[in-house]
Write a structure and sequence with these properties.
The complex is a heterodimer of chains A (275) and B (289).
Chain A lengths: L2 H33 L3 H4 L14 H8 L3 H32 L5 H13 L6 H10 L6 H5 L6 H12 L4 H8 L4 H9 L4 H17 L2 H6 L8 H12 L3 H21 L1 H11 L3
Helix pairs in contact in A: 1-14, 3-14, 4-8, 4-11, 4-13, 5-8, 9-10, 11-15, 13-14
Chain B lengths: L6 H27 L2 E2 L8 E2 L3 H40 L15 H4 L2 H11 L6 H8 L11 H29 L3 H9 L4 H12 L1 H16 L3 H6 L11 H11 L3 H25 L9
Antiparallel strand pairs in B: 1-2
Helix pairs in contact in B: 1-12, 2-6, 2-9, 2-11, 2-12, 6-9, 7-8, 9-12, 11-12
The chains are: A mainly alpha (275), B mainly alpha (289).
């Protein structure tokens, strides 16, 4: 008696999820289809939606039309340095706030917490003014240094270390290990999984950051890949196949990272929401 | 407990110092400079009281705040709704569903500029996918960049596509942590899927829903890339949100005072949204910070 109804409801679950996955993936398929379309087919309404033959040369042509190599390099430098900086400073701060008692601890922690409450987008104008005073506009340090501290990271690592037993370090202390050694050799290795999850999310956020590099950088050679892509779009306007080729070039590496590291990304997203 | 003197300070100094320098100092500057006239690089600032606020609100700011409200509310409702819906489907115990989670994180991690260009292409006049489909079913073509409502709809659709995966992941994680025995007991007692959701899952998810609403609302309030690439705030300000207004006034028009005034307003809106949601909806939930 139950089975026909059960079958229908199960089929419905698969069907609805199938539609949802299709909606998520379709724009990427469209991007690929347009990227490898021959010129004659992009501005022709009678042409089929999917290219009749694949013009892989479009991707090569897009790559050769703009300094993508330099833009990728800038992105690697910017996101790599910012991410490593965020991990190191957050790990150290989180550890100290969890493990030690010291004067002004409360005040210093509130400073960090206040950082969580200030959305970066609201303070873009004064941040640029500060960077201008430092003569840091259009430099790597201007891109990286303001991005090195992560209030969220400090908070997450503090929560993590608060959950670890104090006795671990005490044993090493009796053996005569220095405080710095205890941090580096006893506690920090235990944070491995949380470092991986936080690092993954931090890297993706930095890599995809568009607004901050946009206001700090004003030359094509210093642009990160996102800015470069928007410059490219300005130049090639309605050459949809070249623009989609450029989008494909930009998306491909991060798509590979995303598929390879999906578990860490999921862990990072869930971690970031525990506030 | 031994108390090393310098070590803790050395450890917290980079994070706390940089947070102060690049979050709190700018916030102070923002509030202070919003009361003064003069451009970005002006050496002499003159006190003008609340005039920047008045100018900002009269010259497009009020409209930008309305656009922000419409966009953010639409964004939150659709993103959280879809996120919860898909998460509930993924949580059903059926073979193969665990492998369907991965696609939903893809839009979330891709560079916003690249995906914005794709959506610009989908919505392109005449040759874009959407217009070709409208054509196919005999409807009139739509110009998504010159019609104000359609432009906002386009930006909203794209924003929801890009970000709803985050709410899927967060709701799914929350659903997985719910006590199974209660749900099974209810099932045995004959409660169907809707009753189990309405009276068991939904109340148990309350704390998660508050956090998800806060995160999603802040994402919505800070939407920038989509608008910059797809519509550049247009047509005629129809997609100029408060953040886009700040960007325009601060870096294109060089009306720094007005940009700062709007910055203060957007900061207060973010703060009130966060505290408001936690305060009203979070009433009675346990916060372990």
């Amino acid at each position: 008696m139950h089975s026909p109804r059960l079958f229908v409801s199960r089929a419905l679950v698969y069907a609805l999820l199938g539609v949802a996955v299709l909606v998520v993936v379709f724009p990427l398929v469209w991007m690929l289809g347009t990227a490898i379309k021959p010129n004659t087919q992009i501005l022709d309404l009678r042409a089929s939606l999917w290219p009749s033959h694949f013009e892989w040369g479009n991707i090569v042509k897009a790559w050769n039309s703009a300094p993508f190599g330099r833009w990728f390099l800038n992105s690697v430098i910017f996101s790599g340095a910012s991410t490593i900086g965020q991990i190191v400073t957050s790990l150290m701060a989180g550890y100290a706030f969890a493990m030690y008692e010291f004067r002004f601890k409360r005040v210093l922690f509130y400073v960090l917490l206040c950082g969580l409450m200030v959305p970066f987008s609201t303070i873009i104008v004064p941040v640029v003014q500060i960077l201008a005073d430092f003569h840091w506009l259009n430099t790597y340090q201007g891109l990286i240094v303001p991005n090195i501290a992560s209030a969220l990271g400090g908070f997450l690592f503090r929560q993590f270390f608060l959950g670890l037993p104090y006795e671990l370090g005490e044993a090493a202390r009796i053996d005569g290990a220095s405080e710095f050694r205890i941090f580096l050799n006893v506690y920090a290795p235990l944070a491995g999984p949380i470092i991986a999850a936080f690092g993954m999310i931090s890297f993706l956020q930095n890599w995809n950051n568009f607004l901050f590099p946009l206001i700090v950088v004003n030359s094509t050679s210093m642009d990160v890949i996102s800015e470069g892509l928007s410059v490219f779009q300005g130049q090639f306007n309605i050459n949809y196949n070249l623009i989609m080729s450029a989008a494909l070039i930009t998306i491909a590496p991060i798509l590979i990272v995303a598929i390879a590291a999906q578990r860490r990304i999921v862990a990072g997203i869930t971690l970031g929401a525990i506030r | 407990m031994r108390r090393p003197l310098a070590l803790p300070y050395l450890f917290v100094a980079p994070a706390v110092g940089l947070t102060a320098l690049f979050s709190l100092v700018p916030l102070g500057m923002l509030a202070y400079r919003s009361l003064f006239g003069g451009g970005v690089f002006a050496t002499h600032l003159s006190f003008v009281g609340l005039q920047n606020y008045g100018n900002a609100l009269q010259q497009g700011g009020t409209h930008a705040l309305q656009v922000t409200a419409v966009f953010t509310i639409g964004f939150v409702v659709l993103t959280v709704g879809l996120g919860l819906g898909v998460a509930l489907l993924l949580d059903v115990k059926l073979p193969g569903l665990d492998r369907l989670r991965a696609p939903f994180i893809i839009p979330l991690v891709l560079p916003g500029v690249a995906t914005a260009l794709i959506w610009g292409d989908l919505f392109a006049p005449q040759f874009g996918f959407v217009n070709r489909m409208l054509n196919l079913v005999g409807l009139q073509e739509a110009d998504f960049t010159s019609n104000p409502s359609l432009a906002l709809l386009m930006v909203l659709t794209f924003g929801v596509w890009q970000f709803f995966g985050e709410d899927v992941i967060l709701y799914l994680a929350a659903l997985k942590s719910l006590p199974l025995d209660i749900l099974e007991a209810a099932s045995v007692d004959g409660a169907g899927p809707w009753l189990r959701f309405r009276f068991i899952r939904w109340p148990l998810l309350r704390r998660n829903t508050v956090l998800i609403l806060v995160i999603t609302a802040l994402t919505g309030l800070q939407t920038f890339t989509q608008i910059d690439i797809l519509t550049n705030g247009g047509p005629n300000g129809a997609t100029t949100t408060a953040l886009f207004y700040i960007f325009n006034q601060g870096f294109i028009e060089f009306n720094t005072g007005q940009a700062d005034a709007m910055g203060v307003i957007l900061f207060l809106i973010s703060l009130v949204t966060t505290l408001g949601l936690v305060g009203f909806l979070g009433h009675g939930t346990v916060r372990d910070a």
